Amino acid sequence: MMDAAKFTGILAAGNSGTTGGANYYDLGYYPKLGDGTSMSLDSIQTGTYGSSVAMLLDNSSVASNDSRTGVLHLNGPRQVVAGSAGTIGNSVGHSVFRSGGVTHVLTRDALAQALIDPSFSTEGLCDYEEWTLDLRMLSIGEPFAQGAFGKLYRGTYIGEDVAIKLLERPENDPKRAQFMEQQFAQEVMMLASLKHPNIVRFIGACRKPMVWCIVTEYAKGGSVRQFLSRRQNRSAPLNIAVRQALDVARGMAYIHGLGCIHRDLKSDNLLICADRSIKIADFGVARIEVHPEGMTPETGTYRWMAPEMIQRRPYTQKVDVYSFGIVLWELITGMVPFQNMTAVQAAFAVVNKGARPIIPSDCPPSLGVIMTQCWDANPDVRPPFGEVVKMLEVVQTELATSVRRARFRWCISHPMTSD
């Protein structure tokens, strides 16, 4: 089990217990800031503070119909090198906080300015000091996405391309500031503890009085959702789809093996790296399992969300298995789940009508079985990710065998001649 006690204020150890045989650490609910190409973006559930706010890099994400969607269009490359003097852009602004959310009246570079401002010292990361960024080595490029409380930038760290997430500390809302700091600490704890080929690699983090920064590797291929959108929602070749699904299942098997729940598994949070491998990202809402009755469902995205989360019922790691079933369907079909419905309509249909995406008639039966088991309404029927990996490996072997047989039949029917 992961050590979650390194950040004060995160762990409610007094509430630990067992439910359904599973041990959990309840980290409480923190408002989520999504992220983009390397830390994917989707709706930010703000709980009692207001309706959700959607952020996305392009129009491929699908958020609920009450979301506000923002896209940044850049006018050319500019860079900010940490440690340099002066302002970034032309001015430094401020934020205006209102009920229901926050309105930024900053210039788009003000967050970066707050990070590199030498007049404010860099704060440590408690027991994660080795992950504290050296801001002299960080170069911040243009922001490529933003939400109510932060922005995403592409940049470099010690010469490596990275994704930089900057969160603005609310000045006039201490309760929200506390929530966001806990969320920041939780994400650092998760990223620093997860080391797997199919998990986005953590570079480092730091805190300043008015801004928090998290840096991860940059995924050049964008998200799986963006990949499918670029293909105009046409599915990838079956062998590629299965290979991608295996990457996700192996990463999730590792996460669940540590006693964690991701809770927001979807194609927007699956990143394609330069070697074409898939990496799981966005752990701002991930949990360390302790008691499901203490876990709230205001995270995740309805199209991928298990019915027990939608209904605010107790849940376990099996909510991730459900989401994986939807992701597998996306990979096989190339389409957005429930694309003819709003997110709220999809949630209603899943819970009240048992609706699920339609499996194509030409889908290999073995893949159809995996999907239907994963998204079963009964969490106990859903297989653990270790079994999902084995089933997908069988499918992968079957596909490779059928390709070899087809090639052999073609060679027999088209013999080579001296001509």
From TrEMBL:
Keywords: ATP-binding, Kinase, Nucleotide-binding, Phosphoprotein, Serine/threonine-protein kinase, Transferase
SUPFAM superfamilies (alphabetical): Protein kinase-like (PK-like)
InterPro entries linked: Kinase-like_dom_sf, Prot_kinase_dom, Ser-Thr/Tyr_kinase_cat_dom, Ser/Thr_kinase_AS, Ser/Thr_Kinases-Pseudokinases
Any Pfam family matching the protein: PK_Tyr_Ser-Thr
EC number: 2.7.11.1
SMART domains: S_TKc
Protein's UniProt name: non-specific serine/threonine protein kinase
Gene Ontology MF terms: ATP binding; protein serine/threonine kinase activity
Protein kinase domain location: 138-395
Family from the record: Belongs to the protein kinase superfamily. TKL Ser/Thr protein kinase family. RAF subfamily.
Catalytic reactions on record: L-seryl-[protein] + ATP = O-phospho-L-seryl-[protein] + ADP + H(+); L-threonyl-[protein] + ATP = O-phospho-L-threonyl-[protein] + ADP + H(+)
Taxonomic source organism: Dendrobium catenatum
